[in-house]
Design goal:
single chain; 304 residues; mainly alpha; 12 helices; 0% strand
Length: 304
């Protein structure tokens, strides 16, 4: 498989790219229950350190195979990339893992994909981007969705897992906005790989503090979940994603990511027997609409 470059993007998106977009959404959607299975026997520190580390190694091997440059300018660009990686892979990966241990996987997926809403809010604060009608709609719909999602839980106390899940979305959004603010340039595979390296380093420190899980204690299903998350859900999905960023309009690619929590909730129901409540589905619908509005805002701005 060849790696496309920004200068080789076709004038019109092809059907193969759209099919790949659907495939990536399915891969990332099933990554949620796969990760939860892995966490049955592995700590979040070990799971993420090994998964992200192997994912980064695979991406670097692909870059070497295809001739893609892994070079990032010395000095501040590398520091900026490391900080972005600690937020968008380290913080996100850690909080999402603890979220799955503290609440249902489907609810974690729903809350984690409030990321476009937080990104819209942070873009206004940090990048001074104007709040268009679509962006205001995204913030309103997202707030309503979270409110409906959390209200039934308030009486008994909001589970810590839900707060972790929301925190993972905020961390992901913060890393994305920080990277945009810093203006770090480089090949997309390099940007992804080095952010994974930064996240891996963070989890390696966590492993050193909390200890390494004994390999003999990992059963078959958690091991399958771990292998899926590492090879397919991280390395392969990232590789396909950066192909899509080149071959499809940004709005189309962004809309495709909204399918991920849909697949994630469906996979959690089918594979783990979870039964989201009516409030979960109502909140999910509003959060989905908010993400749609946030992405549509960017598409409309580029069209104008």
């Amino acid at each position: 498989m060849s790696i496309a470059t920004p200068g080789t993007a076709p004038a019109r998106p092809d059907l193969a790219a759209r099919a790949l977009l659907l495939l990536v959404a399915v891969i990332w959607g099933f990554n949620w229950p796969a990760g939860r299975f892995a966490l049955h026997d592995l700590s979040p520190w070990t799971f993420r350190a090994v998964s992200f580390g192997l994912g980064a190694a695979i991406l670097m091997a692909v870059a070497r195979w295809t001739g893609a440059s892994l070079h990032v300018e010395r000095g501040l660009p590398r520091l900026h990339l490391a900080i972005a990686g600690l937020l968008s892979t380290g913080g996100y990966g850690l909080l999402a893992a603890f979220a799955m241990l503290g609440t249902s996987t489907s609810r974690t997926a729903i809350c984690a994909y409030t990321m476009p809403i937080w990104a819209t809010f942070l873009a206004r604060l940090v990048l001074k981007e104007r709040l268009t009608g679509w962006r205001i709609a995204a913030l309103v719909l997202g707030s309503l969705g979270l409110g409906i999602l959390l209200w039934p839980l308030v009486a008994e106390g909001v589970p810590a897992g839900v707060l972790y899940a929301i925190g993972s979305a905020v961390s992901w959004a913060a890393g994305t906005i920080y990277l945009k603010w810093a203006g770090v340039t480089g090949h997309p595979i390099a940007i992804a790989a080095w952010q994974l390296v930064a996240g891996t380093a963070m989890f390696a420190v966590g492993m050193a503090v909390h200890g390494v899980d004994p390999g003999a204690g990992v059963h078959a299903l958690p091991m399958l979940g771990f292998l899926y998350s590492t090879v397919i859900g991280t390395a392969l999905a990232y590789l396909l994603w950066f192909q899509l960023v080149v071959r499809l309009p940004a709005g189309t690619a962004g809309l495709g990511t909204l399918l991920v929590p849909v697949v994630g909730v469906g996979a959690s129901i089918a594979l783990m027997g979870e039964r989201p409540s009516g409030a979960d589905f109502a909140g999910f619908a509003l959060i989905f609409a908010a993400g749609l509005s946030a992405i549509w805002s960017g598409t409309a701005k580029r069209a104008a």
